[in-house]
Amino acid sequence: MRTRLALTGATGNVGRRILDGLAAGGSRDLVAISRSTSRAVGVGAATVQRKVADYADRAALTVALDGVETLIFIASDDEASSMLVHHLNVIDAAAAARVGHVVYLSSLDADPGSPFCYAGVHAETERRIARSGIAFSIARVSLYGEFFAQWPLAAIGTGELRLPAADGAISLISRNDVADCLIALADQPASGSVALLTGGQAYDLDGVTELTAQCSETSIRAIDLSPAEYRMQVVRDGVSPWWAYAFGTMFAAIREQRFSEVTDKVAGLLGRPPTPFRNVLEGLLPSSHRQ
Ligand SMILES: NC(=O)c1ccc[n+]([C@@H]2O[C@H](COP(=O)([O-])OP(=O)(O)OC[C@H]3O[C@@H](n4cnc5c(N)ncnc54)[C@H](OP(=O)(O)O)[C@@H]3O)[C@@H](O)[C@H]2O)c1
What we know:
The protein is α/β, with parallel strands linked by helices. The chain has a domain at 4-143 and 172-198 and 261-270: Rossmann fold, CATH 3.40.50. The protein is 44% helix and 15% strand. The protein contains twelve helices and nine strands. The chain has helices spanning 13-25, 58-64, 80-96, 119-132, 145-148, 150-158, 175-187, 205-216, 227-237, 241-255, 265-270, 277-284; strands at residues 4-7, 29-34, 48-52, 70-73, 101-107, 135-141, 160-163, 194-197, 221-224. The strands form two sheets. The chain has a seven-stranded parallel β-sheet, sandwiched between helices. The radius of gyration is 19 Å and the shape is globular. Residues 9-15, 34-36, 39, 54-56, 74-78, 86, 105, 141, 143-144, 147, 175 line the site of NADP nicotinamide-adenine-dinucleotide phosphate.
C-alpha cells in the first residue's frame, strides 16, 4: 500500500532536493507543505500534492498532515523565539494528525548551554519530539557549505576573510547530502536516536582561506577578528540586527569547536563519501574565477 510522506519547508533548498529525490523514487504519495504556493517546489505538480500552512498556523498544519505516515520536518528559519513557537506547532500538529514517524532536521550544535542562538531551540524541539509519543529520527547537521560559502566568496573580491572564528573548525556539509540523508532516514524505521551528519573534513579559518585562494586563483588573507571587531564589521556591512546577533552567536559556538566534529554517518546512510567542501565552493565561484 502506498503511504503518504509530507515535508515542511518544501520550497527551500533542502526541501526541493528532497522532493526531487522522493519523486524519482515514486513509491509514496508526497505532500509538500509551504507558506504559499507562489514558489515552485521543483517537481511536476502531478506527483506532489501542495498544502499551504505557515509554521505559525497550527490548525493549518494539522489539516496538511492529515493521513500522513512520515513527516520530514525541516526546521523553520526565523528569529529564535518565533522559530521555537513554529516547531512546537509542527509537533502538536503531527501528534494531532497521528503521524507515524517524524524525521527532524536539527543542528550539530543542539546544546542548550551553547552560545549559538538556535542551539537551545533545537534542543527544546528534540526534547518535545521525544516526549510527543511519535516515533522519530533526528538528524543533527553541521553548517551547510553553501551557507558558509557566502564569506569566502565575498573574500575573493576583498582579498581578506575577516571572521571571529579563532581556531574553530567547521565540518561543512553540502545541502544535497543533508537532503539525501533525510530521505534515507525517512526510508528506514524510526531510529529513536540522533544521527550526527557532517562533511568529511573540518576547516578552520586558515583552511577555508587557503582552499578559497586555490579554487579562485586569488590571494586571500585570513584575519581573525575579535567578537567586538566583528560586531562593528557587521554594522558597517549593513547586516540586519537579528542576523548580526545570530551570526555573532554562531561564531562564538564555532570558537568553542561546537561545529568541528567529523562523523562517518553520511557515508553510512548514503553508501558514498560526503561531498567535499571544495566541490561546493567551486560550484559557487563566479564564472570569472572558474578554472
Ligand atoms: N546548517 C546550516 O548551515 C543552516 C543554514 C541556514 C539554515 N539552516 C536551517 O535549515 C533549514 C533548511 O535550509 P534551506 O537552505 O532549505 O533553507 P531555505 O532555502 O531558506 O528554506 C526555508 C524553508 O522554510 C520555509 N519557511 C520559512 N518560514 C516559514 C514559515 N513561517 N512558515 C512556513 N514555512 C516557512 C520557507 O518557505 P518560503 O518559500 O515561503 O520562504 C522555505 O521553504 C532552514 O529552514 C534552517 O532551519 C541551516
